[in-house]
C-alpha cells in the first residue's frame, strides 16, 4: 500500500529516526498497527552453527548458545541478545544475535508512538520471503553479505571481505518478488521490511522482546476488562444479597484457582531449573572439548610469509585444509611448520600459477592435522 525510507547519519539517535520515519507513514488510528522490524547485518548476525551437542531439545541448544554468545558471535564491545534456534540436523542449527541497543531503540520508539512490536528478525531471515531464488549480495552500510535463497528459505549466508567480493559471482541487484513490483525498480530496497511481515508468529529466529514490553498492551487491556467486571459485580452485590453470595463464591473459586496456578507454576519452575542445570552441564562439557577457530586462524595467518595470502580455511575435529596464494607455495608450506597447533602440513592437488596485477603467485591447497595440545582442558 505504501513504502517510505530515510537515511540516518552515523551518530544520529536511532529511536528518534524511527519516530520521524513512522511520522511519514500512513498509519490508522484504530486499530493501532502491529510493528515487525528487520535489522540488517550491520547490527545483527545470522549463522549456521555446527559442532553443537547432538540433542533434539531446542531449549537446551538455545541455552547453550545464550550462555556462550561470545564464542558463537562477534561482540565488538556491544552487548548482544540472542533469538531462538532453527534445527537443521543433529549438531547443526541456525542461530541469530542482535545488537541490544538497536533492539531497545526499536522498542522505545514504537512504545512512544503507542505501537506494539510483534517480531524483530535479522534481514537475512526476512529476505528469502521477498527475493527470487538465487545467490545475491546484500549491503548494509559497510557490511556486505552473500546469501543463497531457495524455496523462500535461507540456505547459506556469509559476510564478504573486499577480496572475496571481487571473486564471488553474485547478482548485482537483488530481484524482488512480484508482490513488490508496484514499488518500481527500487522495490528490492524494501525486501527485508516486506519479508519480515510475511514471517509466521512462530519463526524461531525472531526476537519477540528483550524486556517484556511486547505484552504490555495485552496486560493493559486485561486490567481494563477486569476493572469493568469488578464494577458490575459491585453494583450487582449492592442490589441483592443473593448476587453478593454468588460474587463471594466466585471470588473464593478464583482464589483457589490462583493457588492452584501458583502451585503449577512452582512445579514448572522446578522443572525449568533442572533443565537449565542440564544445559549448563552441556555448556561446560562443550566448552571443554571445543577448539578455538579464531585462535587457530590467528596462528596460521601469523605464520604465513608477509607476501602470502590466506584464501579459504575449512576446519573439522581432526584437522583442516586451506587455500593459499604465495610467490612460492613451498616456502609458505615450510613456514607453517612453526605453528604448534597443526602437524604434518602438506600440499595436496596441483599447484597453479595466477597473476595478481604484475605479480605471479602460486595457488596451492594445504592439508594439516591438529595436534593433541589444541583440545581445551
Describe this structure in words.
- The chain has 377 residues and is α+β, with helices and mostly antiparallel strands.
- It has helices at residues 14-23, 58-67, 69-72, 100-112, 123-126, 162-167, 191-197, 216-239, 241-289, 293-303, 329-336; strands at residues 34-39, 44-50, 80-89, 92-99, 116-122, 134-140, 143-150, 153-159, 309-315, 319-326, 342-356, 359-370.
- The strands form 4 sheets. It has a 4-stranded antiparallel β-sheet.
- α1 (14-23) crosses α4.
- The protein is globular.
- The model is unreliable at 210-219 (pLDDT under 50).
Radius of gyration: 27 Å
CATH architecture heading of the largest domain = 2-Layer Sandwich
Kindly report how far apart the N and C termini lie.
Answer: 58 Å
What is the percentage of strand-forming residues? 25-35%
Strand sequence of the main sheet, in spatial order? 9-10-12-11
Could you describe the largest sheet, including whether it forms a barrel? 4 strands, antiparallel
Quick one: overall form? globular
Helix content: 25-40%
How many β-strands, per DSSP? 12
User: Could you give the order of the helices and strands?
Assistant: HEEHHEEHEHEEEHHHHHEEHEE
